[in-house]
Design brief:
Elements lengths: L7 E2 L6 E2 L4 E6 L5 E4 L9 E4 L2 H9 L2 H6 L9 H22 L3 E3 L1 H10 L2 E6 L5 H15 L8 E2 L4 H8 L6 E5 L4 H15 L27
Parallel strand pairs: 7-8
Antiparallel strand pairs: 1-2, 3-4, 3-5, 6-9, 7-9
């Protein structure tokens, strides 16, 4: 049974939310505001809804000093710093999924995987050609029909970032299959996109609900 964490109050909206929907901050020894994305750093923390606009407002209104009840230095670059940290975390999540055997790379291998593996997401480099994206989307439509609307397509990471995360060169298209590591990566992706205000699903294959469809191997009925 998952451990229940009490709700925390956002210092911007004053709304109580689950910790997963918020970003925790602590003060460093120099009174610098430090993001605690994993909620593990020692010291008293304050919480803000995990949206870039919320961080910008907290910095602009100097809400950190009020919440900590002492001087708190929050740089103007704090929203960008957090976005970079979340992007680094996203790459790390993809690396972990790859080590767990949950990532398939290469256009033709991805195309084949759509037909006979439990694919939970497609990944395209930002530089991927529209033709390749369209061909893989057509393969998905053959399998999913109208339910394609909830299928995640990740295309935030560049070719270089995919290469770095996966330890190989010139990765343009990849597929994420169900298994150890895939859920963790998708959770990080949703968090990153939510922070940026991009919604949960993109590329014309999603309806923004965040619901994902798992492609079962051919001949196997979904449970």
């Amino acid at each position: 049974m998952p451990r229940h964490e009490p709700e925390r109050t956002c210092i911007v909206t004053r709304e109580a939310k689950a910790p997963a929907e918020l970003i925790r901050f602590v003060l460093g020894p120099d009174h610098q505001v430090v993001p605690d994305l994993k909620h593990k750093l020692p010291g008293r923390g304050v919480w803000i809804t995990a949206r870039r606009t919320m961080i910008e407002e907290a910095v602009k209104r100097r809400l950190f000093s009020r919440a900590f009840k002492t001087e708190a230095r929050a740089p103007v670059s704090l929203p960008q710093d957090i976005e970079r940290m979340l992007r680094d975390d996203l790459r790390q999540g993809l690396s972990l999924a790859n080590k767990a055997g949950a990532v398939i790379t290469g256009f033709h291998k991805v195309e084949a995987a759509i037909a006979d593996k439990p694919v939970v997401a497609l990944i395209h480099a930002t530089e991927a050609a529209e033709d390749g994206r369209r061909k893989l989307a057509n393969q998905l439509r053959k399998r999913l029909g109208d339910t394609i609307s909830g299928f995640p397509v990740i295309q935030e990471l560049s070719n270089d970032e995919l290469d770095l995360a996966l330890g190989r060169s010139h990765v343009i298209h990849a597929a994420l299959v169900a298994g150890a590591g895939s859920d963790g990566f998708l959770n990080r992706w949703h968090r990153y996109r939510s922070f940026c205000g991009s919604g949960a699903v993109q590329a014309g294959l999603g309806d923004g609900t965040g619901e994902s469809t798992i492609l079962k191997p051919a001949g196997i009925e979904a449970e």
